[in-house]
User: Fold these one by one.
Assistant:
Number 1:
Amino acid sequence: MKNFQWTEPQTIEQAIAWLAKANGKAVLMAGGTDLFTEMKEGVVEPDLVIDLKSIPGLASIQKDKDGVHIGALTTVASLAADAMIKLDYAGLSAAAGSLATPQLRNVGTVGGNLCQRPRCWYYRDAQMDCRKKGGSQCFAAKGRNKYHAIFGGGICHIVYPSDLAPMLVALDAQVTISSPRGERNLPLAEFYSLPAKNVRRENVLAPDELVREVKIPLAKKGTRSAYVKLKERETWDFALVSAAVRGTVSGGGLSDAAVVLGGVAPIPWRLGKTEASLKGKKLSQALVKEALRADLQEARPLEENGYKVELVEAAVTRALLSLTRPL
Amino acid sequence: MKKNAYLKMAIGNKPQGKETSTPAPAEFKLIGKPTPRVDGKLVVTGRAMYTHDIFFKDMLYAKILRSPYASAEVAAVDLSAAQNLPGVKAVLKLKEGRVKYEGEQIAAVAAVNEKTAEEALKLIKVDYKALPYVVTPDKAMADGAPRVHDSANVEKINEYSRGNIDQGFAEAEVTFERTYKTAIEIHQTAETHASVAKWDEDELTVWDSTQAIFNVRDGLAEALGIPETKVRVIKMYMGGGFGSKLDANEHTIVVAKLAKETGRPVKITLSRKENSLCVGNRPSTQITIKGGARKDGTLTALSFRNTTCGGLDSGDQCSEPTIDVYKCPNVKVEEFTVFTNTGAGRATRAPGHVQGTFALEGFMEELAAELGLDPLEFRRKNYTTSNEGGTGIVYSSKGLDKCYDIGAQKIGWTRRNLKPGDGQGKKRRGLGMASQIWWGGGVPGTLADIKIHRDGSVEAVSGTQDIGCGTRTYMATVAAETLGLEPQDITVKIGDTVYPWAPISGGSLTAPSVAPAVRDAALQAAEHLRGIAAKKLSVPAADIVLADKKLFDKNKPENSIAFKDLVKGLRREAVFHGERGPMPAGFAYNTFGAHFAEVEVDTETGRISVLKVVAVHEIGRVLNRLTAESQVVGGITQGISTALFEERVLDENTGKMVNPNLQTYKIATSMDMPEIVPLFVDLVDPRINNLGNKGLGEPPRIPSSAAVANAVYNAVGVHLREIPMTPDKVLKALRGKEAGS
C-alpha cells in the first residue's frame, strides 16, 4: 500500500474543501469495506483519504413531507432494521438485508454502497491494465466473464455490484450532492453512467463532489416494492442477477410498475419496455415472460454469462408476483 | 510433499506379520466418550499461539517478489535500489533463468516492518522476457502447445489391470460409459502459511504453520546443508492444514536464510493471494469410466481413464476406489497427467480419492438407473470383504455394509425418487448416496513417552502435531484411561522436534499412530506402578487395578493407595517409551463410510440447496465422539463447498488466476450448511493396533461431493458430472435435458 495522508473533517464543508484541494488525488471513506480492499490490492493509490465518519448528522433516517431522507453514513444494517423502511419500502429493507454479511452491513454505509467500485476481477487486479484503470482493453470481453454484464457493456463489461442502487432507482430516489458550488439534487437513475460516457467512472460525481443523502418519495398508498437477489452462495455474495420492483397493485395487476435489474449491467438497468407492457394487466408468470421479451432481446451475453438472461426472467417474475401476495 | 510419497505414508508401512498388540477391552471408561477438547478454552479465548502470533522484539519481516508471468525468462534482477531503502536489512535473489508459473519466487526482502518490505519489493527491477505458456489442460494437450517442462506435456502416471477387460465387457448385458470432471481446489486454510526463523549460533529454530514438523526439519537441514541435529521445528497451534503444509516450503527456507544473513529472527506470513497461487492445489480431473454389468446388477468390467492436471507437478492418481470398492473381476486403469504453467498440485485432503470417488460413485448411480435398480442395492450386490474388488487380501475389518444400513434408515432412503427426476414443480428434491474407502491404518514405529513426576503430575509427549483434529485431547484421554486418571491430569506436549518422532499429520494417520504409541507407553507405566503397588498392598500385581486416581486390589477395593501417594516414593521421575507396533500381515487395513444427502434444486435459478447429510463411518474404535463428529462436519463442509462453489479460475489470455481471494474463490458459509448427522459403526478392529482404531481425517471428505451430486441427479434426472455445480451449469444441464427429451 502506498503512503497516504488521512484527514477527519468535522463538517461537510471541510470535507468538500479537502476534496477540492486534492484535485482528484483524494478518496472519500465511509465504512471503508470497499475502499480498503482496493487500496490493499494497489488498485487505487490515493494521496489523501478523507474519513467522513466524524461528520455529525449524516447517519439518520428521517421522514418528512418531502419523503424519506437517508443520510449517506447510515449503516446498511440500520437501514435493513428500520421499522418504517420495512413497512413502507419492503424491497429496500430486503435489499439492505441481502447485502454481504452481518459484519459488513454493520460497517458499510448507504453512501458507500451507492458509490462503491466494480468487483470485476480484472479491474481488481492491479497488474491488469484494463480500460477502467486507463488501459486499452477490456480483459473480460474475451476472457472469464461469467459474472459480467449482459446489457450496456460495450467497451467495459463490469456490472454495478450495489444491491441498494437498483432498488433505490426503482423507488425513484434522488441523491443530494454537495460541492464547493453548493448542493444539487439528481435522480439516482441519472447519477450512474455507462462506460461509453466515461469508462474510468461509474457515476457523474465531479472530483470535488460528495453524496450527502438519498431521498425517497413518500410511499403512495397501495404501492409495494420487492427485491429478489439470485446468488451462488446463501450469503456473502454479490448478485448474479437481482430484480428490484415497485408497483401499485390494483385488481390483480399493476397500475404502474418499475423494474430495475442489478448484476447485469454497468449501471442499475431499468426495463422500460417491460414496465410498459405490464401496466394494467393481470399479473401472471406468462404475462411477465411475455412482457420481458422485448427488453431481453437487447441482451448481449458474452461467452460465459448467457445463463444470466434466464436468471433475469426468474428474478423479475418472482419479484413482481410477490407484490400481489397478501400482506 | 510429493503425492506418491504421501500415499505411501497413508498406506502405512507394509504389514510385518508380527502380532504385538495387546488386545483392547471392548469398552473403556473415557475412550470413545464425548470429551471436550483439553485446549478448547485457549483456542476460543484467543490465547492459543499460532504461528501468525509468534513475535520477537528484534524480529524482521520478509516479503517475496513473485513472477506475474505464467512463463518468462528472467534475464536480470537488480536489487540495489531495494538494498538502499532505509529499514531493509537483507535482500536475496532467488531466481534467474526461466520462471514457469504465476507466483514463482524471484527475490526476497527482510525489513524492519511489513510495509518497508513491501516497498522494497517495488524497488527490485526484474528484466522479464515473457514466453509462451499454457494454463489449461486442453491447450496443453493441443498439437504444438508450448512445452511446460523439457519433456512432453502429457505423461502416463499409472496403469493397472486385472482379469480380462474384453472378456468382462463380452459377458456384460449392459455397457455404459460416462465422463466426470472436477475443478482445481485450493487449500484455503484459515491460517495462511507462515514461518518464523531464529538462529542461535549454528542452531536454527523455526516456528512453522505445518502438518509435519519432522519433514520441515529435514527439508531445512537439506536445503541449508546443515545437520538435522542443528534444526528444531515448533508448531503449537494451527489454523488448518489440508495437505499443503507437509514439507519445508520454499518461503520457510527463504526466512531461514534471511535470518542467518541478518542475525535477527525473520517472519513471513503469506497473503491470501500467495496462498492461492504458490503453495499447492488439488489437481483437476477428467475421468471416463466404462462399465459392464449383468441385468441383475453383477459388475463384469470396469475401465477407468483419468486425465488429471496438477500444473507444474503431476496430477492425482484417482483409481484406487475403482480398483478396490466393488467386486469386479475385470478392471483396467490408465491415468495421465497434463502439465501446465500453473502452481504445482499437492496432496489435498484425500488426494485422488475425492476425485475418483466423485467419478466412480456418479457412475454407479447412473448405471443403477440404467439397470433399473435401487442404487444402494446395486452397491450391496457388488459388495466385497477383500481388497482389489474381491481378488486381493481380506480386510481386517470392514463395516461398510453397516454404514449402508444405518445411513439408509436415518435419511429415509425410501423417500427418494424411484426414477431420477420423477419429482414435480420448480423446486425439486432428491436423495443420493456415495461410498467411501481410504487407508488410515497408521504408521508403525511412531513414538510417544509417558513421564510420571514424583508430585503425581503426568506428561504425554510425542513429536506429533495437532492440526485441529483434537490430538492433544485423545492423547490425554488414552493416557488417563490407562493410568486411572482424568484427561485434565495429563499435560500433553507435542509440536516440537525435540520430542520423540511421530509422522506427518496427514493421510488420516495421526490417531492410529500416536494414540497406540501413547497407549503402549501408558501400559508400561501402569505395569511398573502395579509392581510397586503389589508390594505395598501385598497382593499379586495382576490383581492391581488403576482407576479413580488410585491403585487397588480388584478383590478388595478398599485395599488401595492413591496414585499421588504411590508415585511420591519414586526415586526419580519415571519415563516410559511407547511405540506403535506393526500390523499383522495378511490383512488389508482400510476405513469405510457412506454419505446420504438430500438436496433441493431450484430449476428456475439453478441454485442447489443441500438440506441434510447423514454420514456413517467405520473407523474401528472412535477415540473421542465429540472431535470425531467435528471431523465429519468439516469433511462435509468442504465436500459441499467444492460440490457447489469452489474453483480456481484461470484466464487463458493472460495466464493468470483471476480469483486469488476469498470473495471470488467462494467457500461455503455456515448459511450454506445443512443439517448434518454424523454417525459411527460400533466396531473395533481386532488387530490393527492396541486400541483398534483407524483414522478419520480424510474419510468424511471423500464421498461428500459425490453424494450431493448424486442427490441432484435424483432430484432433476440429469447428472451434471462436473463440479462445482454452479447455477450456470445446472441451468445448462436442465435445458440440455429438456432438449433431449
Number 2:
Amino acid sequence: MGEDFSVNLPDLNYAALAPMLILFGAACLGVLVEAFVPRRARNAVQLVLGLLALVAALVAVLLHAPDVTDSNALTGALSLSIDQAGLFLQGAILVLAIVSLLLFGERTLENGGPFVAQAAITVGSELDRRQAAKESGATEVYPLAIFAVGGMMLFVTSNNLLVMFVALEVFSLPLYLLCALARRKRLLSQEAALKYFLLGAYASAFFLFGLAMIYGFAGAVDFRTIHASVTGSTNSPILLFIGLAMLSIGLLFKAAAAPFHVWTPDVYQGAPTAVTAFMAACTKVAAFGALARVLYVGFDGLGWEFTPVLGVIAVLTMLIGAILAVTQTDLKRLLAYSSIANAGYLLVGVLGGGKQGLSSMLFYLVAYGFLVIAAFAMLTLVRDADGEATHLARWAGLGRRSPLFAGVFTFLLLGFAGIPLTSGFVAKFAVFGAGINGDQTWLVLFGVLSSIILAFPYLRVVVMMWLSEPGETTPSVSIPGMLTSTALMIGVLVTLVLGVWPSPLLDLTTDVSNFIR
Amino acid sequence: MKYLSILTLAPLIGALTVAFVPRAKPELAKRLALIWSIVVLAVGVATWVAYKPGGPRLQLQESYTWIPAWGAKFSFAVDGIALVMIALIALLVPLVILASWHDAEKSKRSVPAYFALLLALEGTMIGTFTSADVLLFYLFFEVMLVPMYFIIGSFGTDVPAKQRQYAAVKFFLYSLVGGLLMLAAVIGMWVYGGHTFDWQTLTNVEFTTTVQRWLFLGFFIAFAIKAPFFPFHTWLPDAGGAAPAGAAALLVGVMDKVGTFGILRYCLPLFPEASRWFAPWAIGLSVIGIIYAALVAIGQKDLKRLVSYTSIAHFGFIGVGIFAFTYQAGSGAVLYMVNHGLATGLLFLVVGMFVARRGSTLVTDFGGAGKLLPLLAGIFFIAGMASLALPGLAPFVSEFLVLIGTFTVNKPVAVIATIGIILAAAYVLWMIQRTTQGNTNPALLDLAPMKRDLSLREGIVVAPLIVLLIVLGFYPKPVLDVINPAVQATLTDVVTPERADPAPATSTVEAGK
C-alpha cells in the first residue's frame, strides 16, 4: 500500500496543560503510596500529597493566566481550549477542592476519620462493627478525589465533545466510589453510590448518544466546526436538535437540574458529608462550566431555539428545589434541595447570555461553592453516638447550648437566603441582573418566587436553633479539629468578604468571561 | 465632618462592643448600650445643626467606592424628610434602652445580646434613611429584619414561646416577600436605568410607561408591607403583640416609617407617571385601612395588639396624605410620620410599663389601675389623647394638614377619613376607661408592683416625649421648616399644575393654635 501512515502529532502547550498533568501525576503517585507506605503513615502522607498537588496545580494555573491570549488558548489539535474563562473555572475548582480536601482529612471528630476502612465488608456483620469502631479509614479517597479534580479541570476546558465525554467519565467514576465510603450509615451510603452510578451511567449514555447525533450533523466533534455548521450548514437540523437535547440531558444531570435531579437528595444524604461538600461545590462548577461552554461556544447559533426550553427547565428546577426543600426534615436533604434550586438560579444567569451572563455564573459558582462547603462542614460537627445528627428536630435549642456554632450557621443560612452582606445576595443579584439584561424577566420573577419559598426552610432551621427549647436528645457540637476549622473559617470569611466587598471578584469574572473556540 | 457615615456606623460598632460583653455582666452591657445610644443622639443633634433647611435637596453628601462594576457606591445624603426621621430614631433609642432596662432578664437569655440587637437595629434603620444609593438602601432595608427577628423571637416574653416564634417568622417572611419583590424591581431599574444605583442620577432617567408601572409595583408592595397598608398588615399586630414593649415602640414608631419614607423617596420621584396612575388605588387601600383597622382596634382584648392596630389606622392617614399629591397633605403626612413615632412610641412604652407591673397584656386584667398608679395612668391618658389627635398635641397638626390638603382635591376621601378620627376617639377612650378607670380589679390589689407608681427611670423615659408632643403641638415650625422644601421637591413631579397649592407653613401655625 502506498498510502502514508505517518501521523502528525498535535502541538501541545505544556504550560497550559501543566495543572492537569500535575494532578494526574499526583493521583498516580497516590496510588503508589497506597501500595508502599505503611498503613499508619498513609493518611498524613496522602493528605499532604493531595494538598501539595492541588496547590501546585493552582500555582501553575496562576502562573499561566497572564500568558493566555485568544490565539494561544487552543491546544491539542483544537481539542482543548485553555482560555481565560477556562482557567478561571479551573482555579475555582482547585480552590474549592483544597478546602473540601481539608474535610476529607479530619480525624479528630471521629476515630479513624469520616471514611470506612473497607467498603466491601457486609454491612452489619461482626467484622463491619469492628472496623466501624476501630479501623482507620480508607486513604484511597485522596487519589480518587485528585483524579476527580483533574477530570473536572479537563471537563471545563475541553473544546471537543469527545474529550468532554472522557473527562466526564474521569471525574464521575471516582465520585461514584467516594459516595460509597461513609463510615456510618453504611447502607444509605451504598445505596447512594449505586443510585448515583446507575443514573450517572444513564446520563453519560445520553451524552454519548447526543455526541453521535451531532457528529452526524456537523461531521466533527470540535466546537469550532460545530459552530460553523450550526450557523452555516444546510443539513437538516433534526439531528442537531436531537443531539443538543441529549447532550444537555447529560450535562443537566450533573448540574442537578429538574427533572434530572432525583438522585441529588439521596446521594447528598448518603455520601460522607465531606464528599457531599466536595460534590456540591466542585461538581457544580464543572457541570455549569461545561454547560456554558457548550451553549456559548458550540451552539450559540441556536440561542433562539434552546433558550425557551432551558428556561422552562430553569423554572422547574427553581420551583421543585424550593418547594420540596420546605418539606424536608433532614438537613442534608434540605441542603440538597436548596442546591437544586441554586442550579436553577445559575441557569437564569447562563440564559441571560452574553458576557454578563457568563460572568454572573462564574461569580455565583465561586460564592455558592464556599458557602455550601462551610455549611456541610458545620453539619459534620453536630454529632451523637451514631455519628452526625442531621435530623432537623434534633437541632432544637442548639443556639442555647452552642451560640457560636448556631450564630455561624445562621449566617450561612442567611447567605443561602440571599440576605445582603453575604455573598449569596451579590451572587443572586448578579444572575438575576444578567437574566433581566438578557430579556429573561420571566425567569427572574420565578427566581424571586422560588427565593421566597426557599426562605421558609432556612428560617425553620433558624427557629429550631434559636427559638425552640433544647430537647433531651439535643446532640452536642463537637470541637472541630484544625482542618475542619480552617475549612470553615475560609468558607465563612469568603461568604462575608464577597458580601461586603465583591468588587475584586466581580471585576475578575467580568475580565475573564470570554470563551475561545 | 462626615456626619452621616458616623451616624450610620456608630450604632453598629456599638452593637459589636456590647455583643462582646460577657453574659455575666448585664449591667455593664446596659450602660455601654445607653452610652452608645447617647453618643448617636449627640451626633444626630450635630447633624441637625449642620443641615441647612433652605439649602439644596440632598445635603451632607458623602460617597465611597463600593462595587464600581455595578455603579454602586457607599453614598450617603439626607433630605429634610430623612433628617427628621433620623432625629426621631436617635431620640427614641436611648429612651427605649432605658425603658427596657429590666426586660431582657425575663427571657433568661443573654442580656448583652438584647442590647446589641437594639443598637444593630438602630444602625440599620438609620442606614435606610441616610443612603443615597439604591443598592445601599436595599441592603439596610433587608438586614434590618435580622435584629428585629431575633428581638421578637427570643425576647418577647409577654407571650408564650409558640406565639412569639410564629410572630417572628411571620414578620420575617412577610418582609422578605416584599424585599425580594423589591429586589426584582431594583435589578430591573438598574438594567433599564443605565447600570447605576445613584439615586440622583436615576431621578433623571425616563422609564417607559410599562417599565415604570412594574417597577413601581415592586417597590410599592415592599413598602406597603413594611408600612403596613391594608391588606398587607396582618403581620404587624402579631409582631407588635409579641415584641417586648420597647422594641415594639421602635418597630411601629420608626421601622414601619421606612415604608412610607420609601414611597416618598423612591416611588414618587423615580416613577412619577406610575405613581399618578396607581394613586387612586393607594388612596383606596389607605382609606380602607383607616376605617378597618380602627374598627378592629376597638375589638382587641390585648393592649399591645390594640396599639398595633391603631398604628395601621394612622398609616392610612399617612398614605392618604402622600397620595393626595398636594403640598399641604404631603407635609402633613411627613409631619405625621414624626408625630406618630412620638405618640405611638410613648403609648407603647407606657403600655409596657403597665404590662411589666401586671404581668399580663389583656385589657380585662386591668380595670381601675388609675387609683393605684395615678401618675402612670395620667401619662397613659396623655399618650392616648396624642394618639387620637387631640388639638394641642402634635398629631393633631399633622392629621389636620393631611385632611385639609386632601379636602381641596378629593372631598369624599377627606370626609371618610374624618370618620377615622371619631373611631380613634372610640378605641382610645374605651381602652383608657377599661384599664385605668372604673372599679378596681381585685386581682390588682394583691400585686406588689402595682403599688409602685412611675419610677425615676420611667419618668426620664416619658418626659422628653411628652414635652415634644406638647411643644410640636403648638409650635411645629422648626420641623416643618425642615420638611417643607423636601416635600415640595419630592412632589414636584407628581403634582399636576391645577392641584398646586400654597406651601402650608403659615396655615399650619394657625392650625396649631
